[in-house]
């Protein structure tokens, strides 16, 4: 069974392997899967169409907010991808972002926390909340969606308790380093986007090229088999939720940086659905065992492009949700068709 | 979502049911009571409900609460149970149908159908009964979109209903340019949400909101009849338990599952009417604002003993779970006045849900399966 963790050839994930280089047999799926290629083409077409329709689209004043705006969703999406690959789900991420951002915001208002400490604080809180999810799911033996529905309420309660009044006012601009303004860019490239890309690349490599990373796929495909193959299922599942919590903590810094000097109590609400949408559009199977972080990043980019495009075309901004819904259905439909043709062949 | 986080549960549960005596003459009384409480979700809910009612009445008697926790107060809060129970029943149907069945879009269907109902009744001057029929049909159509994708095309339910959640809520906002409909006929509907005193009952009997009789009880009765007394109900449990086995016994699995989603949509359409009446206005975000209506409904269903893996679930469990949450919330509002009260409601909901779920997992391993 140990080969199952190393060779995904038997899984539907494995596109027919490209001719392997001599001397070393490669059984990994190609680095860019079909869904991701389609996404790249769709995004390219959208950008082309938008730049033709509105000349303002391809200016830095429009692209930078787009790239910065997608980072919270993409960042949490990285963790959510791992969680969904193991066959779980985490609907509490919006509440985690809320708790982290309100505590960090209040600490910054109260004590003028410097940037590194603020990030550390946010990530630490996110990690602890992720740990709560992970422990309950890995050791409580309850389906992830039920536990995270519960912690969604619990975390929101904690956040509202910390909020005390309905908003936090006068947040200092400490986090501007991650913002969409001048302070958030080097050579015109937003820092938050680069940080997100680096983290995504790390996780992508880890999931694809290390034994530990393949364990997540094994768990998602067949938990029982994974356990019998000697994988520590509980530790891996726990890890997935902690990583998601950590990333949600970091994402809350980005959310704060993009916001104004006041923070309302509805921060992060509905974020979990946007993140799950990005992950699914990116080709990760909700049943588990299949997916990649690259797809998630592309999915987040697509969602943000649609939102930007709808606004720039002067359409009603609520329409973008309709397109997101359609894209989800198309992505899942395309995935189903590919699976069926693969099974038939 | 068909994969369980803990496949270890399954085999141990299966073996447990053969090893453990199900009804033992050797079992002592406390052990028997414990087993019933752990394996019968309804018994547990009744116990919890009694605990909440007794505790709150005690607090009320000792003047710890800001207002008396009286029967008339409890009856008045039942208006909150109407949408909760009905959507919980919608989730019951859908989750029971199995293969990761779930419906995240019920809140969005409530929003969109509410707007359609608002147009028909408030703007086009339809009569109330035809407008209600329209709402039910329209909700059913929304559910049919979910059902067709999930049952016939094999889309995963969680993702499909997430997509339609986006679609329906977006349409609800766009259809009237984000404005609510509150013309005179819609405002007059508010009277249906008011309390009535029942005929044939003594005057001292608390006044119960009319919506309980016009919407909640009929819906609960119909769902119960369908699930417990018709072949369709048996088929639904069968496909939820094992849809391959159901297929081999000659059940039309796809159509049975499709019908469950259509029914969930139709119930959501009815909830839309209730919500419009309750707010005296058709609001474009009525079902999705805040946490929305779908998450509480799923929570209620799970708390009521509906197995997220399908095939298990009872109407009585959902109704009791909703009563527990509504009356617990009502007590919390009196014990912790103001904004903090609504925050503690979130806390209570989360704790009760996780507690019930962990207990479920435990009793599964200890006794093998709950009913």
How does the SSE layout of this entry go?
The complex is a heterodimer of chains A (345) and B (371).
Chain A: H1 2-6, H2 34-53, H3 60-85, H4 93-111, H5 115-140, H6 144-163, E1 167-168, E2 185-186, E3 189-190, H7 191-209, H8 211-221, H9 223-228, H10 233-258, E4 263-264, H11 271-281, H12 293-312, H13 319-344
Antiparallel strand pairs in A: 1-4, 2-3
Chain B: H1 9-19, H2 29-39, H3 41-61, H4 71-96, H5 106-123, H6 128-152, H7 157-175, H8 184-188, E1 195-196, E2 208-209, H9 210-229, H10 231-241, H11 243-248, H12 253-279, H13 294-303, H14 315-335, H15 339-367
Antiparallel strand pairs in B: 1-2
Task: Write a concise keyword list for the protein shown above.
heterodimer, A: about 350 residues, mainly alpha, ABC transporter involved in vitamin B12 uptake, BtuC, two-stranded antiparallel ribbon, 13 helices, about 0% strand, B: about 375 residues, two-stranded antiparallel sheet, 15 helices, 2 strands, disordered N terminus, transmembrane (chain A), membrane (chain A), transmembrane helix (chain A), ABC_transp_permease (chain A)
Report on this structure:
The complex is a heterodimer of chains A (345) and B (371). Chain A is mostly helical. Chain A has a single domain, classed as Orthogonal Bundle (ABC transporter involved in vitamin B12 uptake, BtuC), CATH 1.10.3470. In chain A, 68% of the residues lie in helices and 2% in strands. Chain A is built from 13 helices and four strands. Chain A has helices spanning 2-6, 34-53, 60-85, 93-111, 115-140, 144-163, 191-209, 211-221, 223-228, 233-258, 271-281, 293-312, 319-344; strands spanning 167-168, 185-186, 189-190, 263-264. Chain A has a two-stranded antiparallel ribbon with strand order 1-4. Chain A has a two-stranded antiparallel sheet with strand order 2-3. In chain A, helix 4 runs parallel beside helix 6. The longest helix of chain A is centred in the N-terminal third of the chain and has 26 residues, at 60-85. Chain A starts with a helix and ends with a helix. Chain B has 371 residues and is mainly alpha-helical. Chain B has one domain (79-361): Orthogonal Bundle (ABC transporter involved in vitamin B12 uptake, BtuC), CATH 1.10.3470. Helices cover 70% and strands 1% of the residues of chain B. Chain B contains 15 helices and two strands. Residues 1-24 of chain B have low confidence and may be disordered. At the A-B interface, helix 5, helix 6, helix 9, helix 11 and helix 13 of A face helix 7, helix 13 and helix 15 of B. Chain A: Its main location: membrane. Chain A: The chain crosses the membrane at residues 37-57, 63-84, 91-109, 115-137, 144-163, 183-207, 237-257, 263-281, 293-313, 319-337.
């Amino acid at each position: 069974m140990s080969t199952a963790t190393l060779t995904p050839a038997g899984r539907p994930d494995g596109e027919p392997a490209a001719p392997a280089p001599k001397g070393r047999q490669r059984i990994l799926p190609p680095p860019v899967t079909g869904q991701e290629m389609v996404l790249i083409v769709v995004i390219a077409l959208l950008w082309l169409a938008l730049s033709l329709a509105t000349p303002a689209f391809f200016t830095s004043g429009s692209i930078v907010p787009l790239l910065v705006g997608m980072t919270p969703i993409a960042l949490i999406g990285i963790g959510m991808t791992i969680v969904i690959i193991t066959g779980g789900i985490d609907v509490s991420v919006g509440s985690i972002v809320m708790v982290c951002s309100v505590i960090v915001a209040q600490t910054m208002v109260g004590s003028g926390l410097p940037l590194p400490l603020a990030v550390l604080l946010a990530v630490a809180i996110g990690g602890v909340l992720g740990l709560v999810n992970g422990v309950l799911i890995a050791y409580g033996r309850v389906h992830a969606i039920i536990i995270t529905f519960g912690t969604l309420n619990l975390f929101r309660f904690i956040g509202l308790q910390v909020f005390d009044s309905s908003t936090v006012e006068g947040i200092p601009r400490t986090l501007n380093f991650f913002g969409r303004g001048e302070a958030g860019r080097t050579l015109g490239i937003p820092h938050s986007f680069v940080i997100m890309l680096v983290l995504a690349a790390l996780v992508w490599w880890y999931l694809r090229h290390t034994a530990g990373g393949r364990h997540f796929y094994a768990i998602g495909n067949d938990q029982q088999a994974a356990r019998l193959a000697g994988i520590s299922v509980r530790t891996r599942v726990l890890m997935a939720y902690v990583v998601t919590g950590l990333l949600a903590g970091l994402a809350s810094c980005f959310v704060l940086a993009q916001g104004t000097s006041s923070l309302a109590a509805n921060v992060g609400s509905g974020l979990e659905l946007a993140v799950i949408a990005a992950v699914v559009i990116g080709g990760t199977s909700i049943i588990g065992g299949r997916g990649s972080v690259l797809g998630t990043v592309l999915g987040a980019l697509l969602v943000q492009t649609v939102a930007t495009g709808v606004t720039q075309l002067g359409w009603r901004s609520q329409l973008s949700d309709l397109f997101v819904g359609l894209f989800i259905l198309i992505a899942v439909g395309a995935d189903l068709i590919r699976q069926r043709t693969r099974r038939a062949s | 979502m068909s994969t369980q986080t803990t496949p270890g549960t399954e085999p141990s549960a299966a073996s447990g049911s053969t090893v453990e005596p199900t009804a033992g003459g050797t079992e002592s009384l406390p052990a028997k009571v414990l087993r019933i409480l752990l394996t019968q979700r309804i018994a547990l809910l009744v116990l919890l409900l009694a605990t909440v009612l007794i505790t709150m009445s005690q607090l009320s008697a000792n003047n710890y609460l800001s207002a008396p926790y009286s029967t008339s107060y409890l009856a008045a809060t039942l208006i909150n149970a109407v949408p909760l129970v009905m959507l919980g029943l919608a989730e019951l149907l859908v989750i029971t149908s199995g293969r990761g069945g779930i419906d995240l879009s019920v809140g969005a269907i409530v929003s969109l159908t509410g707007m359609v109902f608002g147009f028909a009744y408030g703007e086009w001057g339809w009569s109330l009964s035809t407008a209600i029929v329209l709402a039910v049909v329209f909700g059913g159509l929304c559910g049919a979109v979910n059902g067709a994708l999930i049952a016939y095309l094999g889309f995963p339910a969680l993702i499909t209903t997430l997509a339609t959640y986006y679609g329906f809520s977006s349409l609800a906002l766009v259809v009237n340019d984000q404005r609510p409909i509150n013309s005179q006929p819609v405002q007059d509907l508010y009277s249906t949400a008011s309390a009535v005193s029942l005929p044939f009952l003594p005057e001292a009997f608390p006044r119960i909101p009319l919506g309980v009789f016009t919407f909640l009880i009929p819906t609960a009765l119909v769902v119960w009849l369908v699930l417990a007394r018709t072949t369709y109900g048996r088929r639904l449990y069968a496909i939820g338990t094992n849809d391959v086995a159901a297929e081999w016994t000659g059940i039309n699995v796809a159509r049975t599952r499709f019908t469950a989603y259509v029914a969930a949509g139709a119930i959501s359409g009815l909830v839309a009417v209730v919500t419009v009446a309750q707010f005296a206005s058709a609001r474009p975000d009525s079902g999705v604002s805040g946490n929305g209506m779908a998450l509480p409904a799923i929570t209620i269903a799970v708390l009521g003993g509906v197995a997220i893996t399908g095939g298990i679930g009872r109407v009585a469990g959902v109704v009791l779970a909703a009563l527990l949450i509504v009356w617990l919330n009502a007590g919390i509002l009196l014990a912790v006045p103001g904004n903090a009260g609504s925050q503690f409601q979130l806390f209570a909901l989360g704790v009760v849900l996780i507690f019930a779920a962990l207990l479920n997992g435990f009793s599964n391993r200890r006794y093998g399966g709950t009913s």
